[in-house]
Known about the structure:
Helix content is 64%, strand content 9%. By secondary structure, it is α/β, with parallel strands linked by helices.
Amino acid sequence: xxxxxxxxxxxxxxxxxxxxxxxxxxxxxxxxxxxxxxxxxxxxxxxxxxxxxxxxxxxxxxxxxxxxxxxxxxxxxxxxxxxxxxxxxxxxxxxxxxxxxxxxxxxxxxxxxxxxxxxxxxxxxxxxxxxxxxxxxxxxxxxxxxxxxxxxxxxxxxxxxxxxxxxxxxxxxxxxxxxxxxxxxxxxxxxxxxxxxxxxxxxxxxxxxxxxxxxxxxxxxxxxxxxxxxxxxxxxxxxxxxxxxxxxxxxxxxxxxxxxxxxxxxxxxxxxxxxxxxxxxxxxxxxxxxxxxxxxxxxxxxxxxxxxxxxxxxxxxxxxxxxxxxxxxxxxxxxxxxxxxxxxxxxxxxxxxxxxxxxxxxxxxxxxxxxxxxxxxxxxxxxxxxxxxxxxxxxxxxxxxxxxxxxxxxxxxxxxxxxxxxxxxxxxxxxxxxxxxxxxxxxxxxxxxxxxxxxxxxxxxxxxxxxxxxxxxxxxxxxxxxxxxxxxxxxxxxxxxxxxxxxxxxxxxxxxxxxxxxxxxxxxxxxxxxxxxxxxxxxxxxxxxxxxxxxxxxxxxxxxxxxxxxxxxxxxxxxxxxxxx
Length: 581
Ligand SMILES: Nc1ncnc2c1ncn2[C@@H]1O[C@H](COP(=O)(O)OP(=O)(O)O)[C@@H](O)[C@H]1O
Ligand SMILES: [Mg+2]
């Protein structure tokens, strides 16, 4: 409604001008009447402005609300998807979906809709008014306009293509700078500064190249459309002028006609621009929909999903596992029973230890009949109740940029300070935390204190210990912890293992001396199972790891590794993982 009113007011203005001009020419109006006309125009212009504001506000507001709804739905959905999905879709892609694609949907529903309605109504109304003055002249005048719409559309789509490149290049620049600054020490040690600068310069140049293209198209757009509009003007002046001379139309009509023509220029450009906007919006919507149609492979709650209590036995029965989308199995024919007590898992890098941990944490789907908890197939157990049985310390410590207490209490935010301190004590980190300026309230990460690799690992351990889950799973997460702290931690873990299951992946054998069982993995297969002494006698791989470690001990290679590891751990876990793999 507001929209109609706006266009109506807008269209009346040239009519008034017509009256005024015709009146002036025929000397039928005086100064006060002219003032009245002026006042009327002023009033109408004001009404146009207010109404235009109103309906724009309504549509833009609506498009923002819509954007918010889609964003929330997308985020909610993303969190429900599992590792199999994230294995296929990188973070960059998903971020683009939540930013660029969402923006183009919002643009189509907001500015696109506004411009489309505005342009259609305006051009329809303007053309009708022109036709009212003189139909033939109208036909001649609008002849070049389809050309204008097509040109704008063409330029707009090119503009968008280059603009997208510019954005991509810009994120490359940011990424490059971030990488260099984060890894400044590595850069200096390998004396790569000059090479890095050169690399940065190349990316910067390509950014400028694309920006210049954008500038060029932006530069062409308005002159080109202005030129086409002027062709129309030419037609009108030529033919319309002759009609005025011959008296077919009045001078006022002629002037009004030209005003209508100028009103048409923008809608015609808008049509080209809008069709491009809509097309982009639709493609983006399709991309978002594609992700929304994804279903988690692991169903969080199976209808008949059983809840599970204290686990007494976990069994793998000829377990074979292939990562989604790959064809080579990474675990082969593993048969193993796990009972309360400490189970060690050792093996060379790449032998499948972390993969086994991921399966225990139910991060990937497993076939039926291969993995049981308390004799129940895991596929029949409610996923969340299954995960709550377990606290998992992954191979690389992931810490958030918040306080130390916040990091430890991540899995149980309601917990008391005593419990947090007890967990830190058990992870042999309490004294070091107390030595920080703000104790447990010390901020860590980008804007807080930097922690050594060993400190990070022990905080991650404390986070898991706090949960007191019946299954504690530690994936080689103490590699940077020094021997003395490790002894203290092991004392706690052994006590804990008397009533619970503790599964510990490590390549340091000393903590496993008192393990109930040690499993040796090699190339995805379980090659030996037994206690330390038995394995020394029976397993060649175990002996090899043992020998390697003994020599390492003598070189004191085993102590805490601060330095570089420390600087990378917060920011790029990806890098660390790819190193580990
Ligand atoms: N998310 C993954 N997707 C595909 N392959 C993987 C993934 N994680 C590990 N792998 C592969 O599985 C094998 C076993 O890796 P992993 O379980 O991490 O070994 P470990 O922890 O014993 O060093 C390696 O060959 C590795 O490349
Ligand atoms: Mg591993």
